[in-house]
Write a structure and sequence with these properties.
The chain is of the alpha/beta class. 43% of the residues lie in helices and 16% in strands. Strands 2-1-3-4 form a four-stranded parallel sheet, sandwiched between helices. Strands 6-5-7-8 form a four-stranded parallel sheet, with helices on both faces. Bound molecules: (~{Z})-2-methylbut-2-enedioic acid.
Amino acid sequence: MLDLIAEIRHLKGQNNATILAHYYQDGEIQELADFTGDSLKLARAATKVTTSTIVFCGVHFMAETAKILNPDKRVLLPDLQAGCSLAESCPADKLARYQEMLRINGRRFQTVAYINSTAAVKALSDWVVTSGNAESILRRVPADHEILFVPDRHLGQYLQEVTGRKMILWDGSCIVHEIFSVGDLLALKRQLPKAITLAHPECPANIREHSDFVGGTEAMLKHLATYREPTDFLVATEVNMMWQMQSQFPQHRYHPVPGITCACNKCPHMARNTLEKLRDCLAHGAPEIVWQPSFHRAREVLERSLLS
Ligand code: CIZ
């Protein structure tokens, strides 16, 4: 393992590469990264990278976003199959047909896509939001337009509650956040009555309503920074997030909220990236995210939404 880490560090220097890692990656990958963050922070960090190569340890839509915002850089993803259940739930051709049907019915709307979507879906959208900037972007949608929100119905429902904007919701969900067990959460709360529950807005309403704080990963970290005394936290998001929490705020205790069918919630797509694949992709310069025609239009939408 130590040899593998030394090898990755050596290859990173040799190939003039920067490693970006999402908070949902295994701790050993986050530890090696030059930047860690949520998709918003990493998309912005990618635009500041000075090396010729970016290795994106995350899922496909995140690496794709880094490439779209940095067309001249080589962007590598350790496993090209690292997908996302949300992105899969909203194929671009299906979205285009649905938008057409709304237009034929005389509906005036703008399409707001969660960043967990393909470039082709972003290219069909007016705005792209992340869990970190969704509320401020929604304020930019003209009040006389409806909002078609894709693909996460739970995040969309949460945003309806906090902004008061009525939305047409796509029927997608995240396999990690969808399966938290409310029964187990309530049992944990009985065991640890003083614990604070943190839930991601991709969680269904029954989990959110039993939580003390709802926010994306970056917002969770900001919230943790407000607690000085050692505190128990029940965490309803991807389990690797607790590695980042533990390293930034080691005085607290973190407990994963169990899923209905498993003891903890790990994203199987994020888990496809391993140290070995990270080493191999640096060694071979592949797999690489290759520029696609839809990236041009997606770039306009991403720049307007995430960088300005
Ligand atoms: O925005 C992201 O990176 C995702 C997918 C979740 C979060 O809250 O970090």
